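Hey team,

Filing this mostly as a record. A colleague (T.K.) asked me to run one chain through the structure pipeline before their review meeting, and I want the input and output archived in the tracker in case anyone asks later how it was produced. No errors, nothing strange. Just documentation.

Input sequence:
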Amino acid sequence: MAAHHRPLFVLFGASMTEFSFQPGGWGAALTDLYSRKADILLRGFRGWNTRRALAVLEQFFPKNSPTQPALVVVFFGANDASFPMPSGRGQHVPIQEFKENLQHIASYLKGLSETTRVILVTAPPIYEEGRLNDTRKKWGEKAGDFVDRTNERAKKYAEACIAVSMELDVGVVDLWTTIQQKEKWQTECLSDGMHLTPLGNMVLLNELLQVMKTATWTPSLYWESMPDDLSEPSPYDYVHPSWEMDD
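Output structure:
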């Protein structure tokens, strides 16, 4: 007898992926929607950039695995877009290298199977005053003299992400643009000038679902188009006493 499997969705990214299973998180909400439809596997690592993602790509997604994911959501860029340090340490990845890393990641994932789909998520916008306030709280007033990221830098990395999605014909969520369309996005959608609030998480979730709904994938991976797992009628289904009682 063949083993029982559901379609596998993998969420692969940095902190906003790691935190996505927290209450109000986009990953938790996605898992709720896809209960009895797909298994959601979390591979989120706070602080990671595309260099670190590339280093573990074949280990996390071996080509000889008997079960390949139906969908991989790739969410890197916010850390790559941080400012470079004089020592060379830190999270920064030059934009051309970032683009090449993302190309390699997306291309490799697409090649796992004929039906493996990929969605890239851009870096979110940056509210610089929020970043400064957060660093003051964590590391003191002196830290507040230095911003670690800017919205202009995030924009360039978001544009690079979108360009990769077009080159490789994979899905994309333009989180940088979509969040800024919300009123008071700086504090309503971002908790510390970068990471997502519950509202920011729902913005991402809705955009992700829209990509899945409008994609021309066969089979469809949109939750309303997917059957419930093991949904065939059974003699053990619920029966209310009134259904079998005489008047």
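Quick notes for T.K.: Residues 151-168 form the longest helix (18 residues). The chain has nine helices and five strands.
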